[in-house]
Design brief:
InterPro entries: DUF4293 (IPR025635). The chain has 143 residues and is mainly alpha-helical. It has helices at residues 5-18, 45-65, 71-97, 114-142; strands at 27-29, 32-34, 107-108.
Length: 143
């Protein structure tokens, strides 16, 4: 049952959250490109929590793939992952608006939009999980 469409959505969400943050910058300014892992060495807790939330989202997506026998738990973990990505998106927007040297030239990288893409994939996965659950319930009704 790992070959279901929601597993593909969850795998893509995990790859985007956990893998692409190594290669794609969040934003760039006069100091150079800033990647998610560079935020571990920052001074504030908010900045240190961003890479942790990316990894938590990736781990939760990968764990959710292998819970295919427990669709209700899969659905709940998908919603929790959506909440984590909404918090992550809020933190990224907050930090991008309060960047030091924002008056200088800075541009946002594609990494700022990763939580939006992951949220979209997780919504699609939850929709497919719900569809499977409804199908199983309808078959149980016929017995």
């Amino acid at each position: 049952m790992i070959q279901r469409i929601q597993s593909i959505y969850l795998l893509l969400a995990g790859i985007i959250s956990g893998g692409l943050i190594f290669f794609v910058s969040l934003w760039s300014n006069t100091n150079g490109n800033l990647f998610a892992l560079d935020l571990f060495s920052s001074s504030t807790i908010l900045e240190k929590s961003i890479p942790s939330l990316f990894f938590l989202s990736a781990a939760l997506s990968m764990i959710t793939i292998f819970l295919f026998k427990k669709r209700q738990l899969q659905f709940v973990l998908g919603r929790l992952n959506i909440l984590i990505n909404l918090i992550l998106l809020g933190l990224l927007v907050y930090l991008s608006l309060n960047l030091s040297g924002e008056t200088l030239v800075s541009e946002k990288g594609i990494g700022m939009f990763f939580p939006v893409i992951v949220i979209l994939l997780l919504v699609l996965a939850n929709k497919a999980i719900k569809k499977d659950e409804d199908l199983v319930k309808s078959v149980d009704r016929l017995r």
